[in-house]
Amino acid sequence: MPKLDxxxxxxxPPFEGLQRDELEEVLAPxxxxxxAAGTAIFDQEAEAESFFVxxxxxxxxxxxxxxxxxxxxxxxxxxxxxxxxxALGRTTxxxxxxAAMDCVALAWPSALWPELSSRFPSLGANTYxxxxxxxxxxxxxxxxxxxxxxxxxVAHALLRLVKQTGRKTEEGIEIDFxxxxxxxxxxxxxxxxxxxxxxSAWEEQNIVKSRRKHVTVCNPHSLMLKAESRDKT
Amino acid sequence: MPKLDxxxxxxxPPFEGLQRDELEEVLAPxxxxxxAAGTAIFDQEAEAESFFVxxxxxxxxxxxxxxxxxxxxxxxxxxxxxxxxxALGRTTxxxxxxAAMDCVALAWPSALWPELSSRFPSLGANTYxxxxxxxxxxxxxxxxxxxxxxxxxVAHALLRLVKQTGRKTEEGIEIDFxxxxxxxxxxxxxxxxxxxxxxSAWEEQNIVKSRRKHVTVCNPHSLMLKAESRDKT
DNA sequence: CGGAAAACTTGCGCTCGCGCAAAGTGAGAT
DNA sequence: ATCTCACTTTGCGCGAGCGCAAGTTTTCCG
Lengths: 233, 233
Prior knowledge:
four-stranded antiparallel sheet; 2 domains; Jelly Rolls
């Protein structure tokens, strides 16, 4: 195993506020792992042996119901920490994490969390801050699911993805990883049929452009209008 | 202000693992406050000046949309910590907390959190553990909202309330605080009309008994059936 | 004790979005 | 090169549950 360099993680949100030598100390027990697109990084209900920081790619976090229905809980972007069951007093993962494209991640043994977080308080603080914002995100989604129509929810979901992972192209801002209608449906509590219809309608209006597994938002402002008001403009 | 006694908080989940003298130390900067039913303990978006532990009563946590729609995020029971924006790196409260009945709570200045949690690591660990389970609860609700019909969601919500706050009576298990059809609707993303219809139908089948602002579950098993399967038995 | 507000019930019609079905299309594999 | 599978589109009908409306009951308060 090659020795990992501190510059790998310098500047990433979880490690903000750490000194160079501290970074190296944190990094020492980590190993770097590649995951091919579509492979599981960890499985729901499995023993939480590791926690991770994503160095490259995108990860989809999915919860599966006893009946086999899937719901996408969130997408993880570069630099984010995930799989932190240990930090929240759990011994198993509450969801499955799947590489949405080829990924590279650092992995630490969960057992090291108490030591690491107490030795490097900023690490703990940074982590709990992201937990806080994820809790808020989750509540925001509950509110959306409770109060909005499908069209608004899909619009909100696209806007969030574009904001989180958007990559500028000549036609607009493209979501930076392969995403299907089915995926969008699982994020919004809709069916792939309805999502497909919405995207077609929006393409008609030059608000989005989509190809197989790719979505580009051309007119974010119009999409925001769709997201806000429930009248049928 | 009367000096508070350590026995007040001994045995409460957030303070598990603390010694007697530590409890007193933790308690020193706290003050005890009463809240009349219906009054706000803190408001969404307000500066997070304090965090709280509920000693008596129940608290409703509500998020309000820009359009004025309300969604009940959760209920807080005796012994739970809440309003911990500070622990999650926030400076404002993400939701409003309202006393669902007359309540007594302890309040600490938010500014003390870093010191308290580092001086008493169990306090931090206990708190983050509850944050973890709340994050999970929120995701569970997202999954429910995505995959279940209204009837199942209402059944699940009642079962959860009964489990969390149930008080045994001769007729069954009663939810321990005043709760309206509107409240249940705001927990489940339904309308009060639909909730009313469901409760009427279930009363017909001797599954629940409800009076104004009170709900008793007589037959939890039948209610679990309603919660699980989407066929119309 | 009486009046009013708050909470609850019930009926009716309509619409959003699902369920089902079937055909079309792009992309990777051999 | 073409085959095949995964992804996508589109049509049609139906039903859950909302929106609106009107009426009833309970509790609170003067």
